[in-house]
Amino acid sequence: MNFELTEEQQIAVDSWRGFLEREMRPITDQYLDDAIPKGVTHKLLKMGADYGMCCAGVSDADGGLGLDILTSGLISEELARVSPDLAGTGFVTEGVSLKLSQGGSPELKARYMPGLLSGDLIGSSAVSEPNAGSDVRAITTRAVRDGDNYRITGAKLWTSNVIVSDVLIVLTRSDENEFTVFLLDREEHGYEVRDIDKLGLKGWSMGEVILNDVVVPASNAVGGIGGGLRLTMRGFERARCFISTVALGIAGAALDDAIAYAKQRSSFGKAIGSHQLIQALIADMAIDLDAARLLVYRGLKMLNKGEPFPVEAGICKVFATEAANRIASKAIQVHGAFGITKEFPVERHFRNARLLTIPDGTTQINQLIIGRNLLGLDAF
Ligand SMILES: Cc1cc2nc3c(=O)[nH]c(=O)nc-3n(C[C@H](O)[C@H](O)[C@H](O)COP(=O)(O)OP(=O)(O)OC[C@H]3O[C@@H](n4cnc5c(N)ncnc54)[C@H](O)[C@@H]3O)c2cc1C
Fold first, then answer.
1. Cα–Cα dist 4/262, whole Å
2. What is the whole-number distance in angstroms between the Cα of residue 361 and the centre of ligand 1?
3. CB-hemisphere CA count at 13 Å for 220?
4. Are 209 and 159 in contact (CB under 8 A)?
5. Residue 251 contacts by C-beta under 8 Å, 6 or more apart in sequence?
6. Interval between CA 72 and ligand 1 midpoint (Å)
7. Which of 44, 135, 255, 262 is the most exposed place for a label (fewest CB within 10 A)?
């Protein structure tokens, strides 16, 4: 597999990186550990749209830029170096567009895709519930047919973006063994949300969703009535690759910070970076980051082909998110006690990285998927 970037990919990354540093960082740096307000999120998404944020991986037939998925992943990785929160908001919003593109009616697409692609609308996707996380099939949110409508009742938990989102796609149980995804419009159908404070990625909102007899037309089903589980599972492989690009961004920032600190801090009469054991820490971080990057780029290239790749998606997700934790932890070690203070960014990288081994299949769930595919035996 060739991992060399094409000239177009290199140009896209270089111009995006420059734009991020010049235009976006001054804004996102104001919200390093605070929720990015809805108005500011819209502004940032709109600023990034020309470079492919939220729209790079959506086909041009559906109004996106139709770039290859590796380029879309590179855009997310670069953004995550500056703001993992915004990268998370962006890839979840683009995920909603992709689901609409795969399974939305022409009317739903015409109504929502332009806004989702331009940053005018923010998307969120609710699968997990208080008693159903890894075990997606255990969801109890009900959608009951009522003429041309469905009435949805239930509670969703840990929904990213939902505090600021305009559009929510929600996985429901529409019959005993039937699952359907519906699109809800915050203005039209209303959905009640409650903010969840968490360890890291505090700029990337997360919330609980309460659905109390919400009436939605049957035509708002995405992927057809009964097609919800297939659509949701299909989306997980993409999500595994993209949460891994967020891991790469955080890990890259942690390595940069550790190198800068190792050059300017002295002990025993010389820069700590001159001590061999600090060099070993830095080298181990670089080895982990490089290996993670190659696995993520492989995942993105496989995603581009459109075939299922459960093993490679799982390997990419487990390795990149666990590596980001190791790297952020070592970055703190390089900083000594200063590393655990708010004066340096590495404690934030550490908290941010810690969240990533949980969504889109925990490390353990991905291990089980890899194991099942290699052994042909189900250990769930
Ligand atoms: C940052 C972040 C963003 C998220 N965004 C969203 C979102 O946008 N939408 C959404 O729907 N959800 C979202 N989630 C929720 C996420 O999908 C769930 O947290 C995840 O699926 C795990 O479910 P759980 O937390 O209920 O843990 P559980 O499923 O209760 O698992 C608890 C522990 O048990 C382990 N475990 C479970 N089953 C097995 C098994 N069979 N064998 C071995 N170990 C097992 C797990 O690995 C874990 O360590 C997000 C979570 C995080 C942290």
1. 30
2. 6
3. 25
4. yes
5. 285, 288, 289, 292, 320, 323, 324, 327, 328, 349, 353
6. 25
7. 135
Q: Tell me what pLDDT residue 78 has.
A: 98
- List, in order of start, the domains of the chain with CATH numbers: 7-118 (1.10.540.10), 123-225 (2.40.110.10), 230-375 (1.20.140.10)
Q: Are 360 and 243 in contact (CB under 8 A)?
A: yes
Q: Which of 232, 358, 372 to mutate to test the pocket of ligand 1 (most atoms within 8 A of CB)?
A: 358
Binning pLDDT at 50, 70 and 90, where does residue 367 land? very high
Ligand 1 centre and the CA of 240: distance in Å?
Answer: 13
Which residues lie with the beta carbon below 6 Å from any ligand 1 atom?
A: 92, 125-128, 133-134, 158-160, 206, 355, 358-359, 362, 364-365, 368, 380
Cα–Cα distance, 115 to 45 (Å, whole number) = 11
Alpha carbon of 1 to ligand 1 centroid (Å)? 32
pTM of structure:
0.98
- Residue 1 scores a pLDDT above 90: no
Token output for 210: 């309460």
- Given a cut of 90, whether residue 362 has pLDDT beyond it is yes
